Amino acid sequence: MSTLNLEHFFPHAKPWVESLATIPPATWVNGPTFGYASWEVGHIVSLILIGGTTILMNLRLLGAGVTQERPSEIYRNLRTLQNIGVIGIVITGVLIGSANAVKLYDSSAFTVKMIALLAGIILTYGVSRPVAAANGAVALMPKIWFAIGGAIFLAGLWIFATTDLIDVGIYHVITAAALILIAVTRGRLRWVYLAGMVALIAAQFVHTHFIIKPDDYDHLNPVNKVYTALYSLWIVGTALITLFRGRGEEGGPLTKLVAYSTMLVWVLGAAAGRWIAFQ
To answer: What is the pLDDT of residues 243-268, one digit of tens each?
Structure first.
């Protein structure tokens, strides 16, 4: 498995990184008035704001969520909140990052979070918002930005899924995708999808609790990786069906792919942020 952090890219920056904790804004963050935890709360609230509003907007592009309003109307109602969320993430991130710079400098999870932030901003502002504003139509520039943002998103996913200690965090992304599909699928497809998920969960539980002893990690790890692949295949397969099943006013397969990607990139960023503490 790979281990990729900022020290690999900027090895000569270590003395500067180590000095950040002793100068503003790190000294402000660690001061008595507004402590480190307060800024972390602000960071989390900002992430919830941008993530929640983006999910709501993109669910509409998938024909789910607030279907009483057109995508363009939902975009107009949520764009200010999205802006506040992104600004809040950047400001609070710089503040708490400066106070914890050495740890983040050596953290692959932080690298993934920064990749996800970049991809999230590109996919949200360069692709998803213009597509929603156009009620699902994907113009040339959003297509170009989608190619760029999507490639960065996939790179972040790859690093997250192949790095020691944080690779298990990919289950956050898988779980989010699984839950999104419950809202997006309809009729018989939803029941078939849910039946497959329940069967996989039950099979994994029996396999890893009764067939293999829970403390037999040499055998558990390969088995859990197989189930991770099976979950991913089942979820991706179902999502592909939804791409080509029915074309409403929201648009076709590319519009839906934009919506899935934009939602999950923010989940990736949040999941990577959680796993910084475990490295």
So the answer is: 988 655 567 999 999 999 999 999 99
